[in-house]
Write a structure and sequence with these properties.
The protein has 10 helices and 9 strands. It is an alpha/beta fold. Helix 2 links the parallel strand 2 and strand 3.
């Protein structure tokens, strides 16, 4: 019997109804699948029943890796590594459909890493990911709301996002103390072009460092006390970070890049 490791944020999905709902979101036949954090393999089993072409799983826990190897034999390919230390662009020569019951303690770090590292040829066609509900609410929020922030802006820059469902603690073993949410992400065909994704990360980090204060100070910090760009986009510097929409942050990032080119 494998015991969940709290240090790795492990909560194993055991609800068959939820598993069925997740694997039925898309047609998986002949698809190349990547699963992050398969745990004991309950969702993996559901994926395999849909007849994918290949299933690749990334599991950091050595004990779980052995369990998965014993349970699935050669039906899956296992990578026993930390997903944060893997270059996702090198995982496969073919586009992957990704599933993940992400460890809550690193879920935002994983998503941000993937977004910031997107290349011209995108390595995935779809991400179906489970987050702590509070994090998912931030990802799908809109501006002028309390949940709107850096994660919202980064995620919505390159990805179309849709909420699938909420999941109660009873669907996991051990039971977490919070609800979870499944989101689906698909790459946008049309998005705001920037020279370097790290610049958007920097702009949002500086603006949201003090989210309850006016944007005047972070704006001048980034643009050297020059109010011309704020006037160009009609930005009131007395506003707070959550009052600016996605497009405004994308435009500010482009101006920031142009000033440094």
């Amino acid at each position: 019997m494998i015991k969940a490791k709290k240090s790795l944020g492990q909560n194993f999905l055991i609800d068959q109804n939820i598993i069925d709902k997740i694997v039925n979101i898309l047609e998986l036949k002949n698809k190349n699948i990547l699963e992050i954090g398969p745990g004991t393999g309950n969702l993996t089993e559901g994926i395999l029943r849909k007849n994918p072409k290949k299933v690749l799983v990334v599991e950091k826990d050595y004990d779980l890796t052995n369990l998965l190897r014993e349970r699935f034999k050669k039906r899956i390919e296992i990578i026993n590594k930390d997903i944060l230390k893997i270059d996702e662009n090198l995982l496969s020569n073919e586009t992957l459909t990704v599933f993940g019951n992400l460890p809550y303690n690193i879920s935002t770090e994983i998503l941000c890493k993937w977004i910031l590292n997107i290349k011209e040829k995108i390595w995935f066609d779809c991400l179906i990911l489970m987050f702590q509900k509070e994090v998912a609410d931030r990802i799908v929020s809109d501006f002028n709301t309390k949940n709107y922030g850096r994660l919202t802006i980064l995620a919505n820059w390159r990805l179309q996002i849709k909420k699938i469902c909420d999941i109660s603690p009873e669907s996991f073993q051990p039971r977490p103390k919070i609800n979870s949410t499944v989101l689906i992400f698909k790459p946008k065909k049309n998005f705001f072009l920037l020279k370097n994704s790290k610049n958007l990360e920097k702009i949002t980090r500086v603006f949201f460092m003090h989210r309850r204060k006016m944007i005047k100070k972070p704006y001048y910090q980034l643009f050297n006390d020059d109010s011309i760009i704020a006037k160009k986009f009609g930005i009131d510097l007395k506003l707070r970070p959550q009052n600016l929409d996605f497009e405004t942050y994308f435009k500010l990032t482009k101006e920031y890049e142009d000033l440094r080119s």
